[in-house]
C-alpha cells in the first residue's frame, strides 16, 4: 500500500496516508484504539472498499483498477474471518465450508476431500454435521477459519477473530492461525487482545486516527484497554 | 457452465419460488393473464400472415385488353406475356367465358345477370396472369401496363390484401398495446418476488462474494427463478389458447358463408403459439429478474 487515503462518503477520513508492505508468509497484528481505522484497512485488503487515494496492491494486482469481473479472482486468493463468524445458519459445519468451494465451482470430488481435510485441521471432524446453533463460539469461529482457507488462499485476513470469545477459545483460534501461517499463508489480523499480542510475538502495526504510528517486529500491544 | 453448477442454480431457483410461494403465485398469475392476451395478439398476427400468404398464392394479375383487338393479336399477346421470365401462367379469358364465370359465381337465378346476353356483354376480354413470385406482382403489373396500345389497364389483388391488412393492423395494435402494458406489470411483479429472494439470501450472497464467487454465479439463480415463473405462467394460457382456437376453427370452417376465409390449421398454429408464448414468458421473467438484480444485488 502506498499513500493510501480512505474518506467515507460522510466525510470521515478513516485512513490518512498509509504506507505499508506485507511480505508473503508474514504474520501481522493491526492494533489501535476503537475507530482508528483497523477495519477500514482490512476492508481495503479484500476489496470491500476501494481507496479514495493511493494504491493498494494485492499479489501485485491494483485493486482500484481491476475490472469488476476479475474481482472474484482476486478474492479467491484471500480468506476472510470475522468477529461474528458469518456462517449460514441453516447449513451444517460441513456444508458451510463446502459452500465456499461450490461458489467457486470446484469439482464435487475435490470438495468432499478438501472439506474433510480442513475440518480435520481445525479439529472439527466429529462435529461436522452440526448446525452453527449447535456449536460453541470457538467452534463456530473454527468453521469460519476452515471456510476461509478451504480454497487455498495466499493470505488470510481476520478482523478481531477472538472478539467474541473467552480466553481459552481465543488461544485455540490463535494456535490455529499460527499453524496456518506456518504452512506458508500470510496472516493479517486486527485485534484488541493485548495478552495475545504480547505473548505470541509477531509484527505489530499500530494505527491511530488513520495513520501508522508504530510498526515493529515482535512488538507489544502498547495500549491500556 | 458446469453441469453441477447448472443443477445447483436450478435448485436454488426452485427454492426461491417455494420460499415466497404467495408472491410467486401472484407473479405466475400475472404472467398467465399477460400471456393469454399476448397469445390472442399472436393468433391474430399468425393468421394475418397466413391469410396474406394464401391470398398471395391466388393473386392473379388481370390484364384488361382494349376493345377491338383481333383474335390473332390477342393470341399473340398472350404468348408474349407467357414468355416473360416473371410469369408462371398466362391464360386468355374471352368475355363470353368471363360472363359465364360471373354467372356461376353469383348463382343462376340472378335476374340482372340473366338479362345480359352475349350480344350486350359489358365485360372486356382479359388475360389472367399468375406471377412466379407473388412478391414481384407489382413489378410485373407495371411492366405489363407499359403496353398501352393493346392493354386498357392492369390490376391485381392489391386492393383486397391491403384493406384487409390495414383493418386488422388496427385491431392488432390495440391488442399489442394492451399486452405490452401487461407485460411490464408482470415483469414488475416478478421483480418484486425476486427482490424478496435477494433479501432473504443476502447473507449467502455476502459470503459468496467474500469467497470469490463470480458475479454470474451469484446472478444466475435469480435469472432462472424469473425464467421459471415465466415458463410456469405460460402453461395455462397455452392450453386455453389452443383449446379456444380449436373451437373457433371449427366454427369458421363449418359455416359455408365463410368459405373464402381460410385460417391457419390448428396443428400449425398450436406449435407456433406454444413456442412463442413460452419464449415471451421467459423474456418477461428475465426482464423482471434483471430489474431486481440491477437494483438490489450489489456485487
Ligand atoms: N461505512 C462507513 N461509512 C462511514 N464511516 C465509516 C464507515 N466505516 C467506518 N467508518 C468510520 O471510519 C472510522 C474508522 O472505522 P473502523 O471501523 O475502520 O475502525 P476500527 O479501528 O475498526 O474500530 P474498532 O476497533 O471499533 O473496530 C470511524 O470513525 C468510523 O466511524
Ligand atoms: Mg473494527
UniProtKB/TrEMBL annotation, chain A:
<dbReference type="GO" id="GO:0005524">
    <property type="term" value="F:ATP binding"/>
</dbReference>
<comment type="similarity">
    <text>Belongs to the ABC transporter superfamily.</text>
</comment>
<dbReference type="InterPro" id="IPR003439">
    <property type="entry name" value="ABC_transporter-like_ATP-bd"/>
</dbReference>
<keyword id="KW-0472">Membrane</keyword>
<dbReference type="InterPro" id="IPR027417">
    <property type="entry name" value="P-loop_NTPase"/>
</dbReference>
<keyword id="KW-0067">ATP-binding</keyword>
<dbReference type="Pfam" id="PF00005">
    <property type="entry name" value="ABC_tran"/>
</dbReference>
<protein>
    <recommendedName>
        <fullName>Cell division ATP-binding protein FtsE</fullName>
    </recommendedName>
</protein>
<dbReference type="InterPro" id="IPR015854">
    <property type="entry name" value="ABC_transpr_LolD-like"/>
</dbReference>
<dbReference type="GO" id="GO:0022857">
    <property type="term" value="F:transmembrane transporter activity"/>
</dbReference>
<keyword id="KW-0131">Cell cycle</keyword>
<dbReference type="GO" id="GO:0051301">
    <property type="term" value="P:cell division"/>
</dbReference>
<keyword id="KW-0547">Nucleotide-binding</keyword>
<keyword id="KW-0813">Transport</keyword>
<dbReference type="InterPro" id="IPR017871">
    <property type="entry name" value="ABC_transporter-like_CS"/>
</dbReference>
<comment type="function">
    <text>Part of the ABC transporter FtsEX involved in cellular division.</text>
</comment>
<dbReference type="InterPro" id="IPR005286">
    <property type="entry name" value="Cell_div_FtsE"/>
</dbReference>
<dbReference type="InterPro" id="IPR003593">
    <property type="entry name" value="AAA+_ATPase"/>
</dbReference>
<keyword id="KW-1003">Cell membrane</keyword>
<feature type="domain" description="ABC transporter">
    <location>
        <begin position="1"/>
        <end position="224"/>
    </location>
</feature>
<comment type="subunit">
    <text>Homodimer. Forms a membrane-associated complex with FtsX.</text>
</comment>
<keyword id="KW-0132">Cell division</keyword>
From TrEMBL, chain B:
<feature type="transmembrane region" description="Helical">
    <location>
        <begin position="21"/>
        <end position="46"/>
    </location>
</feature>
<dbReference type="InterPro" id="IPR040690">
    <property type="entry name" value="FtsX_ECD"/>
</dbReference>
<dbReference type="InterPro" id="IPR004513">
    <property type="entry name" value="FtsX"/>
</dbReference>
<protein>
    <recommendedName>
        <fullName>Cell division protein FtsX</fullName>
    </recommendedName>
</protein>
<comment type="function">
    <text>Part of the ABC transporter FtsEX involved in asymmetric cellular division facilitating the initiation of sporulation.</text>
</comment>
<keyword id="KW-0131">Cell cycle</keyword>
<feature type="domain" description="ABC3 transporter permease C-terminal">
    <location>
        <begin position="177"/>
        <end position="299"/>
    </location>
</feature>
<feature type="transmembrane region" description="Helical">
    <location>
        <begin position="269"/>
        <end position="293"/>
    </location>
</feature>
<feature type="domain" description="FtsX extracellular">
    <location>
        <begin position="59"/>
        <end position="147"/>
    </location>
</feature>
<dbReference type="Pfam" id="PF18075">
    <property type="entry name" value="FtsX_ECD"/>
</dbReference>
<comment type="similarity">
    <text>Belongs to the ABC-4 integral membrane protein family. FtsX subfamily.</text>
</comment>
<keyword id="KW-0812">Transmembrane</keyword>
<dbReference type="InterPro" id="IPR058204">
    <property type="entry name" value="FtsX_firmicutes-type"/>
</dbReference>
<dbReference type="GO" id="GO:0051301">
    <property type="term" value="P:cell division"/>
</dbReference>
<keyword id="KW-1133">Transmembrane helix</keyword>
<feature type="transmembrane region" description="Helical">
    <location>
        <begin position="174"/>
        <end position="199"/>
    </location>
</feature>
<feature type="transmembrane region" description="Helical">
    <location>
        <begin position="220"/>
        <end position="249"/>
    </location>
</feature>
<keyword id="KW-0472">Membrane</keyword>
<keyword id="KW-0132">Cell division</keyword>
<keyword id="KW-1003">Cell membrane</keyword>
<dbReference type="InterPro" id="IPR003838">
    <property type="entry name" value="ABC3_permease_C"/>
</dbReference>
<dbReference type="Pfam" id="PF02687">
    <property type="entry name" value="FtsX"/>
</dbReference>
Amino acid at each position: 500500500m502506498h499513500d493510501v487515503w480512505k474518506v467515507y462518503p460522510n466525510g470521515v477520513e478513516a485512513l490518512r496516508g498509509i504506507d505499508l508492505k506485507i511480505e508473503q508468509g508474514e504474520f501481522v497484528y493491526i492494533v489501535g484504539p476503537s475507530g482508528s481505522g483497523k477495519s477500514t484497512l482490512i476492508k481495503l485488503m479484500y476489496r470491500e472498499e476501494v481507496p479514495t487515494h493511493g494504491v493498494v496492491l494485492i499479489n501485485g494486482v491494483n485493486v482500484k483498477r481491476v475490472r469488476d469481473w476479475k474481482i472474484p479472482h482476486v478474492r479467491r486468493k484471500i480468506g476472510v474471518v470475522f468477529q461474528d463468524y458469518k456462517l449460514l445458519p441453516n447449513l451444517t459445519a460441513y456444508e458451510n465450508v463446502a459452500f465456499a468451494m461450490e461458489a467457486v465451482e470446484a469439482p464435487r470430488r475435490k470438495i468432499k476431500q478438501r472439506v474433510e481435510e480442513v475440518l480435520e485441521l481445525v479439529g472439527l471432524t466429529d462435529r461436522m454435521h452440526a448446525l452453527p446453533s449447535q456449536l460453541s463460539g470457538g467452534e463456530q469461529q473454527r468453521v469460519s477459519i476452515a471456510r476461509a482457507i478451504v480454497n487455498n488462499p495466499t493470505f488470510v485476513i481476520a478482523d478481531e477473530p477472538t472478539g467474541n470469545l473467552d480466553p481459552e477459545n481465543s488461544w485455540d483460534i490463535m494456535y490455529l492461525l499460527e499453524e496456518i501461517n506456518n504452512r506458508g499463508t500470510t496472516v493479517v489480523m486486527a485485534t484488541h487482545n493485548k495478552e495475545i499480542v504480547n505473548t505470541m510475538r509477531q509484527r505489530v502495526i499500530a494505527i491511530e486516527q488513520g495513520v501508522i504510528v508504530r510498526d515493529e517486529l515482535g512488538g507489544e500491544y502498547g495500549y491500556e484497554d | 457452465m458446469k453441469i453441477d453448477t447448472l443443477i445447483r442454480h436450478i435448485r436454488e431457483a426452485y427454492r426461491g419460488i417455494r420460499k415466497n410461494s404467495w408472491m410467486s403465485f401472484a407473479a405466475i398469475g400475472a404472467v398467465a393473464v399477460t400471456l393469454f392476451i399476448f397469445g390472442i395478439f399472436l393468433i391474430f398476427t399468425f393468421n394475418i400472415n397466413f391469410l396474406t400468404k394464401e391470398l398471395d398464392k391466388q393473386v392473379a394479375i388481370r390484364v384488361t385488353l382494349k376493345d377491338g383487338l383481333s383474335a390473332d393479336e390477342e393470341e399473340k399477346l398472350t404468348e408474349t406475356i407467357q414468355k416473360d421470365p416473371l410469369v408462371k401462367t398466362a391464360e386468355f379469358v374471352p368475355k363470353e367465358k368471363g360472363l359465364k364465370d360471373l354467372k356461376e359465381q353469383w348463382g343462376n337465378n340472378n335476374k340482372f345477370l340473366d338479362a345480359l346476353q352475349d350480344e350486350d356483354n359489358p365485360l372486356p376480354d382479359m388475360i389472367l396472369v399468375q406471377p412466379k413470385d407473388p412478391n414481384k406482382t407489382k413489378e410485373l403489373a407495371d411492366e405489363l401496363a407499359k403496353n398501352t396500345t393493346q392493354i386498357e389497364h392492369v390490376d391485381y389483388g392489391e386492393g383486397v390484401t391491403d384493406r384487409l391488412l390495414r383493418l386488422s393492423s388496427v385491431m392488432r395494435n390495440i391488442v399489442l398495446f394492451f399486452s405490452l402494458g401487461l407485460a411490464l406489470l408482470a415483469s414488475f411483479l416478478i421483480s418484486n418476488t425476486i427482490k424478496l429472494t435477494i433479501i432473504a439470501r443476502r447473507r449467502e450472497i455476502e459470503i459468496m462474494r467474500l469467497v470469490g464467487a463470480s458475479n454470474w454465479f451469484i446472478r444466475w439463480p435469480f435469472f432462472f427463478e424469473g425464467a421459471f415463473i415465466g415458463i410456469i405462467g405460460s402453461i395455462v394460457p397455452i392450453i386455453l389458447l389452443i383449446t379456444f382456437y380449436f373451437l373457433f376453427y371449427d366454427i369458421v370452417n363449418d359455416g359455408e358463408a365463410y368459405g373464402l376465409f381460410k385460417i391457419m390449421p390448428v396443428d400449425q398454429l398450436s406449435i407456433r403459439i406454444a413456442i412463442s408464448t413460452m419464449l415471451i414468458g421467459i423474456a418477461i421473467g428475465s426482464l423482471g429478474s434483471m430489474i431486481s438484480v440491477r437494483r438490489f444485488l450489489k456485487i
